[in-house]
Structure formats: structure tokens, C-alpha cells
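Box 3.1 A note on notation
Throughout this textbook, protein chains are presented in two layers. The first layer is the amino acid sequence; the second is a C-alpha cell string describing backbone geometry. Keep the layers aligned when reading.
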Amino acid sequence: MDSLDLARLRREYSAAGLAESDLPASPLSLWHRWLADAVAAELAEANAMVLSTVDPDGSPSSRMVLCKGADEAGFVFFTNYGSRKGSAIAASARVALLFPWHSLGRQVRVEGVAAKTSYDESAAYFASRPRGAQLSAAASRQSRVVASRDELEAAVATVAASVGAADVPLPDDWGGYRVEPLVVEFWQGRPDRLHDRLVYRRAAAAGSWSVERLAP
């Protein structure tokens, strides 16, 4: 597809708008409502989010991860701590998230601070994963160069042989992060590109938020 064809790609949004009067006191309440809408609409992996980080050399990096928990404390995902994202977070905990619910004409942007979840929380989630996923997590040195697919599969086979029928232990370099939200923007597509953008910003008072509207 050439640049002319890309320029012609356009969708007209016709969904109902988002007004200040629609907003609950907490952005997490509205996020859960929108997530429920995405699940009801049978969107593929409705809990998928884009995680953006900045490497120590200033290079930005984005990837899709799955949100595995969300409450007033933040949004949770799990990964290898030695991965590129883990190394970036270790250098700078400020991250951004994006929930791209395109077919609903919605997106949610989050800016916040990432911190590791507790060992117990990471272990509990790891234990809930399918055994194959546990073995892969234990065998993979995520983001590092490997010689071939065969090398990966051999590493998994080695781990499987070492644990036998026993539970797969939580790897030392694997666990969760919780992103504490500081800014949460709700974007609702509207006709003629006059979209609604309402932004929550964490206030100084604990548990309180201010709200403002941005021009589309």
C-alpha cells in the first residue's frame, strides 16, 4: 500500500460522546466500564495494552503486553525482569500504557510509574499460568539473541526434564510490575474528527483526581 492509499484510509466515528457529567470520581471506575464494553463486544484480547519505555540511552521502545490486574493502585503486567522492558524500567520507572479499543472508537492512555509487584503476588500469578507457559518463562532469556528456534525448544526441554512432575518454580528473573497511574486520558471518537478527550490527573490529595478536557 503506497502513501496515497494510506492517506485515503479514513473512518467516520459515530459513537455517543463522553461528557464530563459521565465521569466517575476515579478513572479506574471508568476504565473498568470501558473494559467490560470491550469484552462484551468480543474484542480479541481486550486486556492487551501497549507498554512504552525509554532505554538508558534515551531510545523509546513499545510492545504489547497483557494487563493482568487493575485497581486503584495501578495496572499490573508480568514479564522477565532481564528483558529490554525490564532493563528500561530499572533505569527509568516512568512508563506509558495505551489500551487500543479501535472497533469501539476508544482508547485509553496512561502515564505512570512502574514498580515490581511482591514476590507473593508474582508467585501466585505464575502458579496460575498453564504449565507450558511456565516452562517457557523459566527457559527463555527474554530479549537476548538466540541462535535458532531449536535452541529455544532445547532450553524448554531441559527445564522440563529438570523439574519432572514437580511444580515449576518461579524463576528468579520473572515477575510483575504495577504501573501507578498519574495521568489517565479517555479518548472517544466523534464525527468530523471532533473527538472527546477527557484527562484525569492525580491531585496532591490522596485518592483524588482533577479532570480537564483537551482539544482533539
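The chain has six helices and nine strands. The CA atoms of residues 79 and 175 lie 6 Å apart.
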